[in-house]
Amino acid sequence: MIYQQFRDLKLSSLGMGNMRLPLQNDxxxxxxxxxxxxxxxxxxxxxxxxxxxxxxxYHNGESEKFLGEALANYPRESYYLATKFFLxxxxxxxxxxxxxxxxxxxxxxxxYLLHAVFDETFDRYMGEGSVEYFLEQQKLGRIxxxxxxxxxxxxxxxxxxxxxxWDFAQIMLNYYDWMTGKAKREYEILKEHNTPIxxxxxxxxxxxxxxxxxxxxxxxxxxxxxxxxxxxxxxxKRLPQVKVVLSGMSTLDQIKENIELxxxxxxxxxxxxxxxxxxxxxxxxxxxxxxxxxxxxxDTCPAEINIPAMLELYNRYxxxxxWVLEDxxxxxxxxxxxxxxxxxxxxxxxxxxxxxxxxxxxxxAQIK
Length: 368
What we know:
The chain is of the alpha/beta class and about 375 residues long. It folds into two domains: about 5-280, Alpha-Beta Barrel (TIM Barrel); about 305-365, no CATH class. Helix content is about 40%, strand content about 15%. The strands form two sheets. An eight-stranded parallel barrel has the order 3-4-5-6-7-8-9-10. Strand 1 (about 5) and strand 2 (about 10) form a beta hairpin. Helix 1 packs parallel to helix 11 (about 250-260) and helix 13 crosses helix 15 (about 355-365). The protein is globular, with a radius of gyration of 22 Å.
């Protein structure tokens, strides 16, 4: 295992994320399969992983409880715990913190985070007393390092890092979002402030493990023996500001492959990085619909569907998974995808010739 220096600690480059532990069945909200999950934790400990990330809400609150039990037989100094306070789940930060210590069966948290700072929650996090309380706990030794995980705009990140000196920050970092999104700029901002980074979603929730045919062909031609997921993990090893890469490993095969990758000092060459980014570009073109929100389609829709908004939702669904479809209720639209009658009048007005009715049918089939 490769280790990274963080203050006076040596952190395993690969961290164990505990948001996607194996489950007893495929039903939503199914209980953690504690036998298989324990095998993964034991394998991680035996093979040098010493950073374990969880949160108050993961697995409906069971992740912290499981992790506390799973690590109870190991010396406390042999691993580092990371967990988070999410004010939208429960704003009582004092009660939450005490509950987390109890769940995790510990009297201190190594890495404590404000969870999911958005533009909309920034003022509340900074103004409702939680930061001051956690700083007090840090002085008492009950929190070793205080940081945040981030999902907001560049402007909010600038305000956040200017507010105080944070010990670390956690951001979504992968080669797709480096090319298409805000990941590169977030990395640069944190580097400018000399803030160590914990990287989450290196395989974008598993999406970079199953690319479009054209994108996959590019990567397989370069290295037929590499898995698609390994390209994402090899890429992130290029970034020196990153101290730990979190991976939500739910099978022994996944953790074995990842440990092998993070036991090898080799990183992608500049040429290989260019190949990965070119695959990301092809993937984007092949997966996403090229809607420009011109709205030529809207006036003639008999179902009064807000088509551009639904196509934007469709693109998010293709990239991030079915969970984003829950946001459909937030879209201002008289009609829903299920109301589409496939008259195709919208297609006649679409400059991009998008198969709108086909996409509406696909969304309708996914939205229950």
